[in-house]
TrEMBL record:
The gene is coaX. It catalyses: (R)-pantothenate + ATP = (R)-4'-phosphopantothenate + ADP + H(+). This is Type III pantothenate kinase. It comes from Pseudomonas typographi. PANTHER family: TYPE III PANTOTHENATE KINASE. GO terms for molecular function: pantothenate kinase activity.
Amino acid sequence: MILELDCGNSFVKWRVITVQGLAVSGGVVESNNELLHTLSAAHDVHLRVCRVVSVRNEEETRKLTEAIEAAFSIDVHVAQPAMEQAGVRNGYDDYQRLGMDRWVAILGAYAQAGGPCVVIDFGTAVTSDFVAQDGAHLGGYICPGMPLMRSQLRTHTRRIRYDDVSAEQAKHALRPGTATVQAVERGCVLMLRGFVATQLEQARLLWGDAFTVFLTGGDALLVAGVAPQAKYIPDLVFQGLAIACPLT
């Protein structure tokens, strides 16, 4: 079995797949120790190798990979930046500065679209990337995601205090809020929806209607109504990781 890890700034997403690519299990953890404990407790999981995409610094990534190698006696392969891979050309002036999570998501999307596409990932931050017909990455945009917007309002506005359960309930509608939690949560959702709308406008200026939109990340479904034609692929980063970091 293959262990795949998506190491973000806040969480580690993990899944175990068979050699044929069938997902066996997966989840989200907050720390390396929690990840090791969860995997060690899964007695039906027999790991053979691991591949990782990480946006953490080299030291943090090294600590995680060494811990996995020691705990399970397997090799760990970490996806690396590339100027060109799988038909996609990195569009950043310094290709090594493009976040690896964005890069592998781009690879996964272009492999499916085979042509112009927009990849929008909703995590702690929201990122969008544009890829042309010939695989040229044209660049993209980054803005705060729901967690960052909520955190900033809570941190810098004294009277904004509410729990996560109330936040989740508030997002069930988008009419004007009659309580602070509703006003904040719905306002943040509308900010994200507006961001998606502008990405579609940019894409139409480039390609007319001949492009594919990919949505991924934890909050992607909050904006699905803005882009009903979009493909929602929760594991897009993992799909791209398999391309960026092949094991054969």
